[in-house]
Specification:
Elements (H helix, E strand, L loop, with lengths): L2 H27 L8 E5 L4 H16 L5 E8 L9 H8 L4 E5 L2 H8 L7 H18 L4 E3 L4 H15 L8 E3 L6 E3 L7 H11 L16 H15 L3 H9 L18 H4 L6 H10 L1 H4 L1
Parallel strand pairs: 1-2, 1-4, 2-3, 4-6
Antiparallel strand pairs: 5-6
Length: 287
């Protein structure tokens, strides 16, 4: 092995350990997977879901609990979709899988006007099909491949275009209370996932349903965040950590915090507390 190859191998091992540690930490922090779970890994054919499956397989083999993994792909009947790629890959690594065949492509093209973005309705249709399969097949957890950058981008999308402070939680109970969604890659950076997928040479299937759609609102947000990170390295990490450190009393949502009844919680001052407090902070002034 040449010196360059040895260095490349060393860097890949560091990357793999980091991603495994981050996924393991996210699973532990949010209690994503319990003993006996049947986890449906939603595999789109993109870098994120391939990486998620790869790391979950490793964790399954070394975890102190027993859980089952099944890879599920939704074949949306897009023209030119390489139907053989995922079955061949999953068979080669010995992972049980199921392909859901549903022509959501025609529905999206019929409903969405030409030139408009399709991700919104496409996502809802995919989610409905995957949720239905999970309910019918005893799935206890649905694993999605959203990573840290996806979560941060969603936060700003909701702020800028939806007037909400809302993102993607690492663990979610569906609206109908029948499915639990987990995001094991919640702590992982997209750049690390991209490097990992390239090194592992996953057979990536690009999404050609929506074309390039470079003017998507999400792409605008992504460009903004990348510019911030370049200008101030570490800013995205701080933004993500802020999602884990929320102070409802310092915001303005009357549904989240009882601002209207603060008077009932107030303790009337006696005057002595203020004097002592001033002495501690401004000793010179007290003198």
């Amino acid at each position: 092995m040449s010196e360059a190859q040895a260095k490349q191998h060393f860097e890949f091992n560091k990357l793999r350990k980091r991603l495994r540690r981050q996924v393991g930490q996210a699973i532990a922090d949010y209690d994503m997977i319990q003993d006996g779970d049947k986890v449906m890994v939603c595999l789109s054919g993109g870098k994120d879901s391939y990486t998620m499956l790869d790391i979950l397989l490793n964790l399954r083999d070394h975890a102190p609990i027993n859980f089952e993994l099944i890879a599920v792909n939704l074949d949306q009947k897009q023209p030119g979709f390489p139907e053989h790629v995922l079955p061949e890959y999953l068979s080669s690594i010995g992972v049980p899988y199921h392909i859901i065949e549903k022509d959501t492509y025609s529905i999206v093209k019929e409903v969405v006007p030409e030139g408009k973005t399709t991700c919104g309705i496409c996502s809802r249709l995919r989610r409905g099909s995957l949720y239905g399969y999970a309910r019918q097949n005893g799935i206890t957890k649905i694993a999605l491949g959203h990573h840290r950058d996806d979560i941060i981008e969603t936060l700003f999308l909701n702020m800028f275009y939806g007037s909400k402070i809302k993102a993607m939680p690492p663990k979610l109970l569906s609206d109908d209370k029948t499915n639990i969604v987990i995001r094991p890659l919640a702590y992982a950076k997209e750049a690390d996932i991209e490097r990992y997928a390239e090194a592992r040479q996953f057979p990536i299937i690009p999404c050609n349903l929506c074309g390039s759609q470079q003017n998507l609102q999400r792409q605008v947000i992504k460009d903004m965040l990348q510019a911030w990170e370049k200008q101030s390295p570490g800013r995205l990490e701080n933004i993500f950590r802020s999602l884990q450190n929320v102070a409802p009393s310092q915001l303005a949502d009357n549904e989240l915090f009882d601002f209207k009844n603060l008077e009932q919680q107030r303790v009337m001052p006696t005057g002595e507390e203020d004097e002592a407090y001033d002495d501690q902070i401004f000793p010179a002034l007290a003198r």
